[in-house]
Structure formats: C-alpha cells, structure tokens
C-alpha cells in the first residue's frame, strides 16, 4: 500500500502516525531485527536494509515511498554521515542517526550533517515511538514556508517574468525537482552556527556570494548558455551542496539586471566614442576604432572575470609635434559604486621616465616634459567630459580634477628630482675620470 | 506435574535474576523479552542466535587481525566497535564492558593489552552464551509443561498456575 504523495494521509485509515513508512538501515543484523520488531510494535511500516547503497537504491526507486529514514552511523560500505547528507538533500527526508557511540562530538557531527535526531544505542521503544514528530515538524515548516513566500513570489513573477518560480512550490508531493523551499531547513541548519537553537529553521540565513562562488556561478551560466539558463541547471553545474535553488534564483536575477545595465552603458560608450573621434587626429581615429572592439571584448571578459565591476577600456592617444610619440596603452577606468576613481597614470609615467634616460642634458628633457604635461591635461579633459556624460553628476567633477592635479604635481616633482640625480651622476663621472 | 511446573518456573526465575545480578545481562534483555509476543514467540531466541553467529565471526576476525605482522588497528577498532554494538543489542553487559576496555588498548596501540582483552572478551562471550543456552532450555521446559515465561521486570515473577 504505497501512496505516491507524501501527504498527511497514511495508507491505514487510523491516521497519522500509524503506518508511518520507515526505512531502517544498519549493518548489524541483530540490531536490524530488533529495530524492525520495535518499529512494528509502534504500528509503523518498516523496511530494513543492511547496506547503505541498498538503502539509497530503494529510496531512489520508490520516491515518496518512505516518510523517514533511520540509519546507523558506522557502516562498512558508506559512511553513515554521507548517507545522511545524500538522503536529506536528494530526497529531503528526515533522517535519524543511531550509534553505540553517544559522545557529544558525534552527536554534533550528526546534527551538522543534517540529522534531525540522534539516538544512542541501545534505544528504548518509547524513543522510537516518537520519531513521527520529525516527519510532522517538517510538514508544518513546509506549509509555513510556502505561506510566507506566496506574497513574495507574486511580485517576482510579474517583475522578472521568468518561469523558474512556478515549479516545486505548489506540487509538494513530487520529488523529481527538489524545491529550494524544502531545503531551507537544511540550509539553515548548515548556516546557523548555534546548533541548539530550534527556532532557527524559520529564520532566513543569508548566503554570502564570495568571489569564488560567483566565479563558479558565472562559469556555470556560460556553460549552459545565457539564453537557456535556469536556477536548477546552474545549481547542478555549480555542485555546491549547501546552496539552494532559491539562492541561485535570486542571484541569477541580480546578475541579469547587472548585465542589462552593462549593456546599456556599453551602448552609450560606443556612441560617445564615435563622437569624440572628431576631436582626435585622423590617425587616432583609426587606432581608436580598432580598439572599440576591445571595449566590447573587455565587457565580456569582465562578466567572466573576477570582479563584479564594469571594465571599460578607453584608449588615449598622444602625439607629440616633435615626433616624440607617446604610445600609451589603454588606461582602465574601473567604475566603482563609490565616488572614487582609480586612474592608472603609471603607464604614462613610465613613458616619461624612458625619455629622461634618453636625454643627454637635463635641459632637453625639460623641454620634452612640458608637452607631456600638456597631453596629460588633454587626457584629463577627455576623462572629465566622458564621466560627466555617463555619470551625469556634477559633484564628482569637482573632486576628480583636483586629484589629477595632485598626481600631476607629484609627477612634476619626481621628474625634477630625476634631473638632479642625473646632474649628480654626470658630475661624479667627471670627477672620477 | 503442577508442582513440577512450579518448581521449574521458580528455577527459571532464580536463574534469570541471577544473570541480572551478576551483570551478565542488563535491562536491554528485558526489552527484548517485552518485544516478544504471540506473533513472534521465538523472537528472543532468534535475536540471540543472530548475536552468537555474528559475534563468533567477529571474534575470529579479531584473532586473525591481531596475529598479523603489522596490526591494522583501524580494522581491529572497527571490529570491536561492531562487537560492542551487537552485545549492547541483547544486553550482554559484560561483553560490552570488555569491548570498551579493548578499545582503549587499541587506541594506545598496545598489542599485548589488546590480546589480553581479546581473551577476556572471548571468556565473557562464552559465559553469556552458555548461560543463555541454559536459560532457553529451562524456558523450553516450562513452555512444554504448559507454563508461560515471565516477561516483566528484572526480577521475573513466578506465575502461579491456577489450581
């Protein structure tokens, strides 16, 4: 008499908890026999298993065929804790651990791996009689979670229009997909440091999306293909056991919003870059256009890269009228959420240092320096104009030039010191020869 | 024959209570007795037989493992752990206690200590085996004579047949 649904109704008409379907797993045949007898006496329906893999096979074959699993910790073919994890994640069933060893550390480990109870052997019949409460508790929490989520779901469905919300939540009887909701209790058990707090299962634990985790996520998304992506596929690829579908779904939504924002800004930048071409020399335009592709490329790289921030390449070309060409590599302006800007002028600085070495006399160097500074000013104007269009805020215009002026001043002083150093070197060489 | 039955029952009761007093059996055995009912009248005997079979095998494995050149203490510990579990299932208290001592020696990797312990376990095991076998014989006699086996409490009461 196996019902496919996991509802409150039991095969027998006496009602819950009579007829509770228990799967008992223990490699000790003596204990298995005793357990079977004890559970039968509690009017439960018992199936026994001597091996963990047989138990898993039974569970997978008959999805929804069991209400609760009771298993020994020490088993020859598979670690009891591993079985425990698999069962509570894959089948989302309450699992009770048993062991001769009743040490606190073991009990803790059991609970950490998701056990809803830990019975030290030898156990009494009255302890077994009470195991139905774990099944009951899970049901109650599921109902509560569904009710609390219903309001949220309506909002999300209309906003995003994605269909990844409608599976699982309303089909409680099915085990084919594992709804994130059912995993919530388990997730909370993992996330909560305080194991003794029984009310923790209703609290929502925050998942911190670390860099590594996000990388995995992005990799999974790219593997699946951005168009076909869905939380479950991502979850499978990511292979992070404690992560729930809910977490992935909400993160995916944020990610989509972020990408669409990037795309908008990218379009804006391309159009701006086209405008600015007229200001630069014709030679620049050619070079700049070839690097426009790099902007798009960089865009894609950023999404798969480490940082969550937009990476944009702005090519800055400088031509000296004396034929002293400063070929600068692109400076990367990273947009942060804050007002700060990190402008790497170090590349420019390097170029100028090279010219300093080339010079024979300091005087000729200083002549070259001035055009360099002029070019820098041009760069700053570019950047300012650029930022004012994209950011659209005036406040930052005031701060940025100041910072850049400061940097310029530093560079100026550095070059002066360099001049002095060269002077000294020149004199010393004269002195020694 | 009633007198004979009464005598048998008394003997059975005394024997059983002695087992409890000596610590050979503990309250788990009582649990087993309570589990026995009409649907399963030989439950206790079946379980105990299973225990004997499993334990004998475990003891042989232990002897073999300890006789090795390089003793694999993890394996030995696993066996003892299993034996401890089995003995606790039927309430063979002394065997269980001996197993606990064995595990300590095992953790210290003390081979002579382990061997001594093994001997102790074997002794206790044989003792509980013979005692239980005698107990079952007595029970069989009582049942054959028309009486019933007392099941409740650590000190089984003698059921007086109605005269």
From TrEMBL, chain B:
Give this protein's Gene Ontology molecular function annotations. histidine phosphotransfer kinase activity; protein histidine kinase binding
What is the documented function of this protein? Functions as a two-component phosphorelay mediators between cytokinin sensor histidine kinases and response regulators (B-type ARRs). Plays an important role in propagating cytokinin signal transduction.
What the entry lists under PANTHER family is as follows: HISTIDINE-CONTAINING PHOSPHOTRANSFER PROTEIN 1 (PTHR28242:SF5), PHOSPHORELAY INTERMEDIATE PROTEIN YPD1 (PTHR28242)
Q: Which InterPro entries match?
A: AHP1-5/YPD1 (IPR045871), HPT_dom_sf (IPR036641), Sig_transdc_His_kin_Hpt_dom (IPR008207)
**Name of the protein:** Histidine-containing phosphotransfer protein
List modified residues, type Phosphohistidine.
81
| Written domain comment of the UniProt record | Histidine-containing phosphotransfer domain (HPt) contains an active histidine that mediates the phosphotransfer.
Its taxonomic placement starts with:
Eukaryota, Viridiplantae, Streptophyta, Embryophyta, Tracheophyta
What are the entry keywords? Acetylation, Cytokinin signaling pathway, Cytoplasm, Nucleus, Phosphoprotein, Two-component regulatory system
Native organism: Eucalyptus globulus (Tasmanian blue gum)
> Alphabetically, which GO biological process terms does the record hold?
cytokinin-activated signaling pathway; phosphorelay signal transduction system
- Primary localization class, coarse: cytoplasm
Instruction: Name all HPt domain ranges.
Output: 40-145
Listed GO CC annotations:
cytosol; nucleus
